[in-house]
Design goal:
Blueprint lengths: L3 E3 L4 E3 L1 H25 L3 E7 L4 H14 L3 E7 L2 H9 L5 E5 L8 E15 L12 H4 L3 E3 L7 H13 L13 H9 L4 E6 H4 L7 E5 L5 E8 L6 H10 L9
Helix pairs in contact: 2-8
């Protein structure tokens, strides 16, 4: 098939040549679209987390997607030590933690602070107080997580009590957030301590949450492997920071 008419002065497309050119342009454009699509691989971000972070996770993931929408999120709920081990082994891309300040082999990036609340039965004498001191609760049974399950929160509570010269009677270690709320709500003279984000998720009417006075806080961090401690990790820190206006439980 003849595609070009050649003369000593110029070269022109034949009618067939124009048809072939149009088809070729369409084919090349389609091939370009295929190449672009092939390069837009969905990235999976695996985040280690724990109970009581729902609102923070929702805000953080929305903020990350506003910057880079092409990724999928997998949330992995693990105890603190298992979360950090999974990060070391490359099974997670980042982990959210409370009370973790330094971890061998990992990079800890401070991101937020949560106030600690005393949680008591609605029948507890302090249930209707606007604030309560640790000394006022020291005579009751304290329920905290076992150290092997949540060392940072356990240590934060015990350290604060020790600094205040208090040694309350220790009850059974707490389990899940749901079980803790049910058990404390059923024992008028027991209490536990929870971070603000966990308190915000309590829906039971059997307990009351009371700010500790003077205020006690626990730090929240984004933890990553050293090789990931770059601009992407800093974006994650920004995404999971506290909002300017805090929701008070």
């Amino acid at each position: 098939m003849r595609l070009l008419d050649r003369s000593p002065r110029r070269v022109r497309l034949t009618a067939a040549g124009r048809r072939v050119l149009d088809a070729a342009r369409s084919t090349l454009a389609a091939a370009g679209q295929v190449q672009i699509a092939a390069q837009q691989v969905m990235t999976t971000v695996r985040i280690g987390t724990a109970a009581g972070m729902t609102a923070r996770l929702e805000r953080g993931i929305d903020a990350l997607r506003a910057r880079a929408p092409e990724f999928d999120v997998v949330l992995v709920d693990l105890p603190v030590e298992a979360r950090l081990n999974a990060l070391r082994q490359g099974e997670l891309d980042l982990a959210l933690t409370r009370g973790v300040r330094a971890v061998p082999g990992l990079t800890v990036l401070p991101a937020w602070n949560e106030r600690l609340y005393a949680v008591v039965s609605r029948h507890h004498p302090a249930a209707d107080r606007a604030g309560v001191g640790l000394a006022e609760l020291a005579g009751d049974t304290l329920r905290v997580p076992a150290r092997k399950h949540d060392p940072p929160l356990h240590d934060a509570v015990i350290s604060a009590l020790s600094d205040a010269g208090l040694s309350p009677r220790a009850g059974r270690p707490t389990g899940t957030l749901q079980d803790t709320i049910v058990e404390v709500g059923s024992e008028p003279r027991s209490w536990t301590v929870l971070p603000a984000d966990q308190v915000a998720e309590i829906r039971s009417t059997r307990v009351r949450s009371i700010p500790l006075e003077p205020a006690l806080t626990i730090a929240g961090s984004v933890v990553v492997a050293p090789g990931n401690a770059g601009s992407a990790a800093e974006c994650a820190v920004g995404a999971f920071r506290d909002q300017v206006v805090q929701h008070r439980p």
